[in-house]
UniProtKB/TrEMBL annotation:
Domain Peptidase S1: 28-253
GO biological process: proteolysis
Protein name: Peptidase S1 domain-containing protein
Keyword Protease belongs to the record: yes
Family matches, as Pfam families: Trypsin (PF00089)
GO terms assigned for molecular function: serine-type endopeptidase activity
PANTHER family the UniProt entry points to: AT26814P-RELATED, POLYSERASE-RELATED
Family: Belongs to the peptidase S1 family.
Keyword annotations from UniProtKB, A to Z: Disulfide bond, Hydrolase, Protease, Serine protease, Signal, Zymogen
Organism encoding this protein: Exocentrus adspersus
PROSITE patterns associated with the record: TRYPSIN_DOM, TRYPSIN_HIS, TRYPSIN_SER
Signal peptide: 1-16
């Protein structure tokens, strides 16, 4: 019976359905078509050959993604990453995952420490697949800076996943403004926010989870969670990588 429950749960994830966690969304809305040549670090994290999350190449053997993307995966080899392709389901090359390292302080309730490392079975050496520079340790991206977010998530709240890579630019907002927006949820130091407060219309939210957030060519975040999608009063919330930089190095050597 337990095996059946796990298998059905995995099928649910593989079909693009997220776990039932309040405020957890992951899709790009209000973006435009992109090409992998411009974002060669982007990967599709796939569960049993179906897209479930995004991720970012950080070395020849390591990929970063969100912790909530992998918490229900019992065997690393159930996961693979498609790299070097503009398209979610075709092209590029697929690499099997042999190790998953999630942050020990990850919380499925608050999505604090929402980060995981995936190790590829062999070195990633595919055309249009390159690692993205990691940030120096710090407090996070500056308010007002422009974050570039990419992924294959839903184009609208009720729509299908995108088959073509999407990109959107979002302004980083201050921690104070973010905490004021999310009065009933904890915005910790391991999180930062970006979006158009009071305007909405553009966001990363389902299917984009775990995907890269880049500022000035440096990977500063991962798509994590939000209340709805592209809502004017609720910006997107992202894993704050400068704060977690030491953990990445300790566990991957990168």
């Amino acid at each position: 019976m337990m095996k059946s429950i796990i298998f059905l749960g995995l099928l649910s994830i593989a079909s693009g359905q997220q776990r039932s966690v309040p405020g957890l969304d992951g899709r790009i809305v209000g973006g435009s078509n992109a090409t992998i040549a411009d974002f060669p670090y982007q990967v599709s994290v796939q569960l049993m050959s179906s897209h479930t999350c995004g991720g970012a190449i950080i070395s020849s053997t390591w990929v970063l993604t969100a912790g909530h993307c992998v918490e229900d995966v019992p065997i690393p080899s159930f996961l693979s990453v498609r790299v070097g392709s503009t398209y979610r389901g075709t092209g590029g090359q697929v690499y099997t995952i042999v190790k998953i390292i999630s942050h020990p302080n990850y919380s499925s309730k608050t999505l604090d420490y929402d980060i995981a490392l995936l190790q590829s079975s062999v070195a990633i050496s595919t055309s249009n697949a390159q690692p993205v520079p990691l940030p120096s340790p710090g407090t996070g991206p500056a308010a007002g800076s422009t974050a570039i977010v990419t992924g294959w998530g839903k184009l609208s709240e009720e729509g299908p996943l995108s088959s073509i890579l999407q990109v959107v630019q979002l302004p980083v907002i201050s921690q104070q403004s973010c905490r004021s927006a999310y009065t009933t949820s904890a915005i910790t130091d391991r999180m930062f926010c970006a979006g158009y407060l009071g305007v909405g219309g553009k966001d990363a939210c389902q299917g984009d989870s775990g995907g890269p957030v880049v500022v000035n060519g440096v990977l500063v975040g991962l798509v994590s969670w939000g209340d709805g999608c592209a809502q004017p009063d609720f910006p997107g919330v992202f894993t704050n990588l400068p704060v977690l930089r030491a953990w990445i190095t300790i566990n991957s050597g990168v």
